[in-house]
Amino acid sequence: MTTALKIVIIGAGYGGLVTAIKLQRHLKNNEAEVTLVNKHDYHYITTHLHMPAAGTDHHENARVKISELINEEKINFIKSTVVQIKPEQKEVVLEDRVLSYDYLVAGLGSETETFGIPGLEEHAMTIRSINSVRLIHQHIKYMFAKYKVNPSRTDYLTFVVGGAGFTGTEFVGELADRIPVLCEDFGVDPSIVKIYNVEAAPHALPPGLPGDLVEYGMDVLRRKGVIYKLSSPIKQCTDEGVMLADGEFIKAGTVIWSGGIRGNRLLEQSGFETIRGRVKVDPYLRSLQYRNVFVTGDCAVVFDPDGRPFPANAQIAVQQACNVARNLVYITRNEPLEPFVYDYKGTVASLGKGEAVGLLKTIKIKGRIAALMKKVIDARYLFVIGGLPLVIRKTSIR
Amino acid sequence: MTTALKIVIIGAGYGGLVTAIKLQRHLKNNEAEVTLVNKHDYHYITTHLHMPAAGTDHHENARVKISELINEEKINFIKSTVVQIKPEQKEVVLEDRVLSYDYLVAGLGSETETFGIPGLEEHAMTIRSINSVRLIHQHIKYMFAKYKVNPSRTDYLTFVVGGAGFTGTEFVGELADRIPVLCEDFGVDPSIVKIYNVEAAPHALPPGLPGDLVEYGMDVLRRKGVIYKLSSPIKQCTDEGVMLADGEFIKAGTVIWSGGIRGNRLLEQSGFETIRGRVKVDPYLRSLQYRNVFVTGDCAVVFDPDGRPFPANAQIAVQQACNVARNLVYITRNEPLEPFVYDYKGTVASLGKGEAVGLLKTIKIKGRIAALMKKVIDARYLFVIGGLPLVIRKTSIR
Known about the structure:
The structure is a homodimer.
Chain A: E1 5-10, H1 14-26, E2 32-38, E3 42-44, H2 50-54, E4 63-65, E5 75-79, E6 82-86, E7 91-94, E8 98-100, E9 103-106, E10 110-112, H3 120-123, H4 130-149, E11 158-162, H5 166-186, E12 194-198, H6 211-223, E13 226-229, E14 234-238, E15 241-244, E16 249-251, E17 254-257, E18 261-263, H7 265-269, E19 274-275, E20 278-280, E21 293-295, E22 300-301, H8 314-332, E23 346-350, E24 356-360, E25 363-366, H9 367-394
Parallel strand pairs in A: 1-2, 1-9, 2-5, 9-21, 11-12, 11-17, 12-13, 20-22
Antiparallel strand pairs in A: 3-4, 6-7, 7-8, 10-18, 14-15, 15-16, 19-20, 23-24, 24-25
Helix pairs in contact in A: 1-8
């Protein structure tokens, strides 16, 4: 009798969680001993965070207890924070213990990339976790309350969102929907509120959308009150607002940065070769340096046939997790591995209530149909991780 | 036919609103033309504000639309802000028009008195209006959200309440009740939260309570986690906390000042003789300078038989309003005026859910009975201004 393989998964985001769920389903008893480590006892649905950030949905709809998703008799779950990876020793150092592994799955997610723009790290909030979006949600309401006791400070009701990509676009759509509700609640004239979406690139909305869809999306958001500042890199962020490259200063009580991400710093600090924090991997998603370390999601960099990195998103993370889980099963059975092939299914970006825009493979969709597709995509993920009961429990009707 | 007397009431707090309601009830048609001016279109129940401030009740339960309380066919209501009183010309200047009067009732309420303590005005919040308590409510939740993204900053969860009199005591009681709920909601260890009640005087709780009741009240609040700092004047307030006279600095994300009030500055600016902003009045509550100006509530200073000013509170304001309304009716009918006599009914201070302490005349009450009496007193006021329907609508069961 040989000892079961020890598989440790660090991070229960899209990559880590789906790997764990798939392993749980496909590994037979005693084929491997699987441990999942995460700093929270919940998984959060990053693609949903723009809604609780704006306050258009409750943050509980963007998270699920891990204990509800995995069978703790099959997967050993540890709530702890990873301090260091020691790939040479095949060890993961947690804040309270050390785990040794035969195979590691690193799905530690991303960090905010501020590109060295002064003040962003200190003064801008980000849409990256349950806690970070609860802060945004509370901050927005706090600004309304502050304005009410000091109505000369209209800048309290100016909102700057840096970055007009996927997250920035989805967030400004929700924020624009939320503003009239807050104005009604606090007794504020809506014309006082300003929402700026500031973007260094000359175009808004997720990269890769055709021009007419981009125009459509920007029109929808402009009608909701969003003011675009394109080709406008942020030069500096202070506690009073943002300075743009052309010298304009937008005085704003709220600055949210969605302009960039990088891989979790822990990987490069642990000696992995990375590109902007994302680990270089082989066709099987294994570290080029350590073939017993698989990397999934935002921590891995995978290139398209033209040599450009695929953007980090939930879709690719889930597909990678399925591939890694399959290959780990093959390893326990001494079967050959399958390379990872990204099957791009499309991109749909929400523009707020009842509006979205995107591509299904190459088919353009927009408006109500796109908004419905967006809901289907979100529900599909919930189904993958938690089945129909989770879909029903976490999907808001609006 | 003579022209009807023009009565203008400025301020729809306890004094102004009750005057208006009583006049509406007792004046016959055409005996007088009554105008009520208020900067909001709602009346708020100041004695209830400690609850929405802490978040233990909704702010809507602390305000009532003025249109629901008065008959606008009998009382002319103007939503506007008073800019100046010109008693010589018998005129009130509003931000958008000028009103002339034969008789004026000034019930403009109080302002915060900071006694010149540096930084208090800029950095401390106050429990004085719907808007100011909504700010406190949002601020508290914002601090929890900030702490969650930056758990080394335990000072975000330190709350300093300056002043341990009536309002300060009632507020810390609610806050102490609210903290466990917020800790649960945000996932915070309650032992991290600190509530300081800081008082310059050597004793806490409303003045005039016997020593054993004060001890009882402080014990109740201490058990809920309140830390008292008595004989501890605040020397300075900064954006990081408060410096006490003994040199101790309490680092705190929240500072609330309930340590003093003064009469509305507008009165002294309009030439009235005042003591700490409160107008000196004759036995009929008329300005000593202008016998056609009645003053009610926090704007008036009335002395007890020993020559000490009665404290400003809702009870005396309502009684003054009744006296002023009665005397205005007498004036229209050329009947002699009645002097104002304060009938002290008692004081009950809430200590949070199910706990209170106080005096009914000279009878000491505490605990559940006192909490019930507090509810009866609050309900009685609602009954006076709005009848049973208002009592039912605004009284929360808890």
